[in-house]
Amino acid sequence: MSVESLPREPEGAVRSRTHRWEDPRIAASAARVEDGLTFLRRLAAGELPPPPIVETLGLTLVSVEAGRVEFALEPAEYHYNPIGSVHGGVYATLLDSATGCAVQSTLPAGVHYTSLDLTVKFLRPITVSTGPVRCVGEVLQAGNRTALAEARILDSADRLVAHATSSCMIFRPGS
């Protein structure tokens, strides 16, 4: 896509964006005592405030099942890199969120995780004209200490836009 084909405001127009978020300690406190599936379902239902990164990027947690989550993103100019497409860091954040939350959805109360790695394959550019994309994360394998998950970003025609795998470390009580 050429820069000339990007949606345009009047030349030289300055854009601004304001966003708000609630105290992240509210959700973090719930995450410490609830099982992952319950916690994520409460986030998706709006019963808990979303993490600030969700507000910053405009992500939406659409659905949660044990071992599977789905996020949505409406691409916007503020996601763009210097060449007029969504920055790879936005893809990576979306993919990391989906893989991590898929793992979290399988964890009992008191058990936590962190990402150990994230391997991303970028297959297609995303722009405003792409329209909404969705990101589906699924657990491939879960062990006692680590879990492996994958995520796929799909456009509205269900074409694969990006793919990632992630290993997560599991923290059990006393570990």
Automatic annotation (TrEMBL):
It is an enzyme of class 3 (hydrolase). Its EC number is 3.1.2.-. GO terms for molecular function: hydrolase activity. NCBIfam families: unchar_dom_1 (TIGR00369). Residues 84-161 form the Thioesterase domain. Pfam families: 4HBT. This is PaaI family thioesterase. It comes from the Bacteria. Keywords: Hydrolase. Residues 1-20 are annotated as: Disordered. It comes from Pseudonocardia benzenivorans.
